[in-house]
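Input C-alpha coordinates:
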Protein backbone atom coordinates (compact mmCIF):
# COMPACT_ATOMS: atom_id res chain seq x y z
CA UNK A 1 0.00 0.00 0.00
CA UNK A 2 2.77 2.42 0.91
CA UNK A 3 4.70 1.52 -2.25
CA UNK A 4 1.60 2.25 -4.34
CA UNK A 5 1.17 5.63 -2.64
CA UNK A 6 4.83 6.43 -3.28
CA UNK A 7 4.40 5.52 -6.96
CA UNK A 8 1.39 7.86 -7.14
CA UNK A 9 3.49 10.54 -5.44
CA UNK A 10 6.19 10.00 -8.08
CA UNK A 11 3.72 10.57 -10.93
CA UNK A 12 2.08 13.59 -9.30
CA UNK A 13 5.44 15.17 -8.40
CA UNK A 14 6.70 14.85 -11.96
CA UNK A 15 3.49 16.38 -13.33
CA UNK A 16 3.54 19.26 -10.84
CA UNK A 17 7.21 20.01 -11.50
CA UNK A 18 6.69 19.89 -15.26
CA UNK A 19 3.78 22.32 -15.08
CA UNK A 20 5.16 24.83 -12.56
CA UNK A 21 8.90 25.11 -13.21
CA UNK A 22 9.92 26.59 -16.59
CA UNK A 23 13.33 24.87 -16.80
CA UNK A 24 13.27 21.12 -17.44
CA UNK A 25 16.63 20.55 -15.76
CA UNK A 26 15.68 22.35 -12.54
CA UNK A 27 12.28 20.66 -12.47
CA UNK A 28 13.86 17.25 -12.97
CA UNK A 29 16.39 17.98 -10.22
CA UNK A 30 13.71 19.05 -7.75
CA UNK A 31 11.54 16.04 -8.60
CA UNK A 32 14.51 13.68 -8.22
CA UNK A 33 15.49 15.06 -4.81
CA UNK A 34 11.93 15.01 -3.46
CA UNK A 35 11.20 11.49 -4.70
CA UNK A 36 14.57 10.20 -3.49
CA UNK A 37 13.91 11.64 -0.02
CA UNK A 38 10.50 9.97 0.27
CA UNK A 39 11.75 6.58 -0.95
CA UNK A 40 14.76 6.80 1.38
CA UNK A 41 12.53 7.46 4.37
CA UNK A 42 10.37 4.50 3.32
CA UNK A 43 13.32 2.09 3.14
CA UNK A 44 14.74 3.34 6.45
CA UNK A 45 11.34 2.71 8.05
CA UNK A 46 11.33 -0.83 6.66
CA UNK A 47 14.75 -1.48 8.22
CA UNK A 48 13.63 -0.10 11.59
CA UNK A 49 10.32 -1.94 11.57
CA UNK A 50 11.79 -5.40 12.31
CA UNK A 51 14.88 -4.92 14.53
CA UNK A 52 14.90 -8.56 15.76
CA UNK A 53 16.05 -10.88 13.01
CA UNK A 54 19.02 -12.15 11.06
CA UNK A 55 19.69 -9.15 8.82
CA UNK A 56 23.08 -7.38 9.12
CA UNK A 57 21.38 -4.23 10.50
CA UNK A 58 19.39 -6.02 13.20
CA UNK A 59 20.16 -5.87 16.91
CA UNK A 60 22.72 -8.39 18.20
CA UNK A 61 20.32 -10.10 20.61
CA UNK A 62 22.59 -13.03 21.40
CA UNK A 63 25.47 -10.72 22.40
CA UNK A 64 23.13 -8.49 24.40
CA UNK A 65 21.68 -11.48 26.26
CA UNK A 66 25.15 -12.87 27.01
CA UNK A 67 26.22 -9.50 28.43
CA UNK A 68 23.05 -9.25 30.54
CA UNK A 69 23.58 -12.77 31.90
CA UNK A 70 27.17 -11.94 32.84
CA UNK A 71 26.03 -8.78 34.63
CA UNK A 72 23.31 -10.66 36.51
CA UNK A 73 25.68 -13.48 37.50
CA UNK A 74 28.06 -10.82 38.86
CA UNK A 75 25.34 -9.87 41.33
CA UNK A 76 25.47 -13.38 42.80
CA UNK A 77 29.13 -13.10 43.84
CA UNK A 78 29.67 -12.90 47.64
CA UNK A 79 31.07 -9.35 47.48
CA UNK A 80 27.87 -8.10 45.85
CA UNK A 81 25.51 -9.76 48.34
CA UNK A 82 26.09 -7.27 51.14
CA UNK A 83 25.91 -3.48 50.93
CA UNK A 84 29.02 -1.41 51.67
CA UNK A 85 29.57 -0.30 55.25
CA UNK A 86 28.72 3.32 55.97
CA UNK A 87 29.22 4.99 59.32
CA UNK A 88 27.39 8.24 59.85
CA UNK A 89 29.55 11.06 61.24
CA UNK A 90 27.38 14.12 62.09
CA UNK A 91 30.27 16.59 61.90
CA UNK A 92 31.34 15.45 58.48
CA UNK A 93 28.00 14.44 56.94
CA UNK A 94 25.70 17.23 58.16
CA UNK A 95 27.81 20.13 56.97
CA UNK A 96 27.83 21.12 53.36
CA UNK A 97 30.97 23.04 52.52
CA UNK A 98 32.04 24.79 49.36
CA UNK A 99 35.55 25.56 48.33
CA UNK A 100 37.00 27.36 45.36
CA UNK A 101 40.27 26.27 43.81
CA UNK A 102 42.32 28.09 41.24
CA UNK A 103 43.66 25.67 38.63
CA UNK A 104 47.06 27.36 38.31
CA UNK A 105 47.52 27.44 42.09
CA UNK A 106 46.58 23.77 42.30
CA UNK A 107 49.13 22.87 39.62
CA UNK A 108 51.81 24.92 41.36
CA UNK A 109 51.10 23.14 44.66
CA UNK A 110 51.25 19.76 42.94
CA UNK A 111 54.55 20.74 41.35
CA UNK A 112 55.98 21.76 44.75
CA UNK A 113 54.89 18.47 46.30
CA UNK A 114 56.56 16.59 43.45
CA UNK A 115 53.41 14.87 42.25
CA UNK A 116 53.83 16.04 38.68
CA UNK A 117 56.11 14.58 36.05
CA UNK A 118 58.00 16.52 33.45
CA UNK A 119 58.46 15.91 29.77
CA UNK A 120 60.31 18.03 27.28
CA UNK A 121 58.93 19.22 24.00
CA UNK A 122 60.79 20.91 21.16
CA UNK A 123 60.84 24.42 22.57
CA UNK A 124 59.47 24.42 26.10
CA UNK A 125 58.99 22.27 29.16
CA UNK A 126 55.48 21.15 30.14
CA UNK A 127 54.48 19.90 33.57
CA UNK A 128 51.88 17.10 33.53
CA UNK A 129 50.02 16.29 36.72
CA UNK A 130 49.25 12.62 37.22
CA UNK A 131 46.25 11.69 39.29
Amino acid sequence: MVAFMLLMHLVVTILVMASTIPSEAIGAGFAFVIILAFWSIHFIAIELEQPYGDDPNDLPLHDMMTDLNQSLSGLLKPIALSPPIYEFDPERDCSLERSRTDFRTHLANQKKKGKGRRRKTESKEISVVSS
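Residues 120-124 have pLDDT under 50 and may be disordered. The helical segments are 2-20, 24-49, 61-74, 90-93, 103-113.
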